[in-house]
## 1
Amino acid sequence: MTALVRRLWGPWGLVLLLLLIVAVSFSVGQYPVAPGDVFDVLLSRVFGFEHDVTPAAETVVLQVRLPRVVGALLVGATLAAAGATYQGMFRNPLVSPDILGVSSGAGLGAVLGIFLSLPVFGIQLLAFVCGLGTVFLVYGIATVARGHEPVLVLVLAGVVMGTLTGSMISLLKILADPYDQLPAITFWLLGSLASVNLGDLAGVLPAVLLGLAPLYLLRWRMNLMSLDDEEARALGIDTTRLRIVFVGAATLMTAAVVSVSGIVGWVGLIMPHIARMLVGPNFSRLLPVAVVLGAGFLLVVDNLARGLTETEVPLGILTAFVGAPFFLWLLASGRRGWQ
Amino acid sequence: MRLATDKLAFGYPGKPVGRDVTLAVQSGEILCLLGPNGGGKTTLFKTALGLLKSQGGAVTIDDRPLAGWSRRELAQRIAYVPQAHTAFFPFTVLDTVLMGRTPRMALFATPSQADREIAERALGDLQIAELKDQIYTEISGGQRQLVLIARALAQEPEILVMDEPTASLDFGNQVLVLNHIRALARRGIGIVLSSHDPDHAFACADRVAMLHDGGLIRLGPPREVVTSESLRLLYGVEVTVVQPAGADHPVCVPAIAGPA
């Protein structure tokens, strides 16, 4: 009975919950808009009919909230999908999307962009390129330093590169203008969707979809990546090639969203866990559930970020406040989806 | 189908484990590899399967060199049952067995109903059908070993390579697995297994190979190869091989000093 409830409730219940969160997100904030008005504004756009909502409310819904809601959904879903991929591939539940240095690399790119006073697009592009570049470098190092444990070498190389980029970020912070650039750098490194617009999101969407496609198509083979490398190969899997595909896909999509949102921690670490607790480790079910959970979680957190106080709280701070205690609870309660 | 090694040297670069091993196993035949722990049995298996780079000599499958086979082609014909199995995520037993279907599935496919039926049949063959919805990481070590054998059977292989398949099993399950091994060979599957127990060689093997210090010291039918003299060489202990009345095969009785 409970199994049946879980089966039916699981995926569709989550989607329903997500839609509810989306609806609420459009209504709440500094300028509340009645849910009915939100529907009128959005549907009138789609179907082209007249509505009698005030222009101010229309502006809030379309210009202010729509980009943020879409942004939170996109960033949360992407980070959760990438996290689920990395955790499966590295057979380690403590792994998050930035394990191979994509976030720290993107951080370095963005900080450099701010330091050089580049326009917003330039900062985003530099973040994206440096994020990809760092992981490329990590993979290169790991390939050269080949050992018996390809996965371990990869993780170690990622940790080292992460530290290195971290120190370069610190150096740039010291050199940066403390009144103008430093706050911008700090804000970027903590993540925010406050200034995201639909143009940015449309720009990164292709990269996200390009990354998501192989993850979905190869979802069964992803399960075998969590086996011992030799065992997976004995089952007919070309682990070297598949690892490149999965690392490439997860990195591409993470670098893309991080370039517009800044570094948002914890989503990619925690959401795959909850997804695994709900539907088990089979990637065919894990991936969609992680995507829905990640999208919903980041949307709720972003609502808190813009609604809690007069000034915006950076996203990264809130995700850590929610994520860290939750993770400790997971550890303490033994409700874990891993060994 | 024939899996053969010719003067195979195996090990790691700068750290050779064994050399000059010439062996072959055919469809329907059971070859048992005996040798002390750390004697290179696992390394030999992994090299013969192409999971480790060969350090010299050759491995051929139906007279075609190993390098000429893709991993997928190999996995359709040769299944490997590893020894110590660490699982990281709590897959169900059925999902674990279904992983054996991977070499027979298209690149982007997920298991079909037919794959599921084959996986369930493999579990049924080993009399563990009732485990299918249990969590692999929560069952006993012996049950896990049986599930891994089921996963190998789901590959529908022609040759099965088993690394110490009885090592983690209790007495009853050891007998069960040995019986299954015999039954699989009768179905035409060629089987190579390693064992730490010379009695198992008598119980199921057509031929026995003894691996000592990385070299092959004996190869032949169990009754010719497994003797007090060869066991002393292999393990450094005194053993008497006797044929009990009413038993199908001889057994090895080690000399253990009793109370004085």
Note: The domain at 71-333 of chain A is CATH 1.10.3470.10 (ABC transporter involved in vitamin B12 uptake, BtuC).
## 2
Amino acid sequence: MSDLQQRPQQEERRAFLKVGAVAAGSALAPGVLLFGAAQARAPEEPASDKVRWGMIIDVNKCADGCNDCVTACNAENGLTGATGRQDSQWIRKLNIRHLETGVQTSLPMLCQHCEHPPCVDVCPTGASMKRADGIVLVDRHTCIGCRYCMMACPYKARSFVHEPLTDQNPEVPRGKGCVESCTFCVQKLDRGENTTACVEACNAAGHKAMVFGDLNDPNSEIAQVLKTQKTTEVRADLRLNTAVRYQGI
Amino acid sequence: MSSQSYCFEAQACKPALFWTLLGAGGLVLLGTLYAFFTLEHHGHVLTGMDNQIVWGLPHVFAVFLIVAASGVLNVASIGSVFGKKMYKARAPLSGLLAIAMLAGGLAVLVLDLGRPERLIVAMTHYNFKSIFALNMIFYTGFFAIVALYLLTLMDRRLTPWSKPLGMLAFLWRLALTTATGSIFGFLVARAGYNSALYAPMFIIYSFAYGLAVFIIVQTVMYKWNEVEIDERILARLKNLLAVFVAAALYFTAVLHLTNLYYAKQWEFERFILLEGGIYPLLFWGGQVLLGGVLPLILIFSPASRHPASVFLAALLVVIGGHFQMYVTIIGGQAFPLDLFPGYAESSSFYDGVVHPYTPTIWELLLGLGGIAITFLITTVAVRVLNFMPKDDLKELEVELKPH
């Protein structure tokens, strides 16, 4: 009897809990979503040193002859894709062959976004600079075009704009007489997309050779890979602590 | 000597020759300005420079002039700092040439900038970690200090200041050339540079190039004014030049011997000394033979008592100096960066290959502009002011006695 009497009460309680959960959920959800949105920086907010953007490239997954990352970079940043001696190349496919074993590898080479960038050290005006989130950039307003940074870069990652440009991507201003290089698609990062054009293209092609993310976030994929697998810095002897690392070299 | 007339004294001037020289210098400078505005409009696409050879022929001329500018002041320093009267008589000309050459060299660097109109940015934004920025401070300070020093040399009331200012100028110029050499010495990633030797080596180069330029200008001025230099003074100058040239060869040898000791530098040394096409030729034939060995032979040969043979030796040192800058600046860039030691590299961005460089007329015009500016400043200054080295031989008797 008592059981029968209790049943309707339990059902009522369940119904109440359901309604309560939905209500609490709908009350909390915007907060949770807002919390998520808060992780992407507002446009007026400066870059934070809590983040350090980085990239890992698995050369074993990088397909020989595939140039998708280069094409995507050119499209995103408004480069022509021409490869003359005076043309800009922000990312290039580098083929390396071991001199003794003859083993060949193909990998994308770009600005390594060093923690201690030689280009920033040598720039007389401070136009070459490292943003708080580790991205190495050129301030197009203070670059005088002396090219000392190009002399100093160990990765040959920089290009000088040799002629006037037309039809530029308004998000990626470039200019004759200035030096430029990979920006980690800073325009995309600042929009909160948290990826770069080259990584997107590599994923779209199904190679998934490139991982991009926040090196300082222990839960990020890139941090997990760094923690669990062997990666290499190019010219590690220079101790520049690059933000781009390679696997499989 | 005092009865002699010099060009700054109007009656002895050769106006036609003066205006011809001025016209010639002006024409070259016009060509430079034409090149500058053309490049400013079209960009560096017209030059032989590219993303591999980023510093080209203009930098060869510019760095030579800047290095020689600091070196030519040495003549004044030996007079003011070390109290040698023979050199003191040459201090004003030495100071003038220092300013004129630095102005010429810096002008070329500025005219070659990708954004020369932003010179004001370079003067207002300083990254003090950059040796380039420190150089700008050294260069500006050099102008000011040497100008003041010149004042103390030419205005009797300021004579007591000439020794302390001369000392400051001497220390300043040592710092300046250290910084100029370090522009290359601090390039950690490139096989051709990245050596602390660049600082002292550039100082020694500057001694040789500066004194050579001084001897050339002095010889021309004496010839112009039909003055004959005392044989003993000429002997002192040429012996000093020989010491500097030998020291320059020594430092060059040490740099390469050090590199040959490091296995990682072998490839570069093989390139620059043996197999690198034009660069070994310019190194051995231009820098070492023309700019080093031949001047030494000329200086120590029995014929060397003649001013013409010392003049020729000095001229060869200057020519060799330009070859040295070409080998250092362009040769150092022509050798590819080694991103992956132990691997052969290739890419669309010319990794792993020797970079060719063919300068165009525009670069040559920019470079010659530096010489033209130096030439014009010097020609006008020696005409309107008293820069002629005048020796009081009686006073010099003690100093010139054979040791």
Note: Residues 32-38 of chain A have pLDDT under 50 and may be disordered.
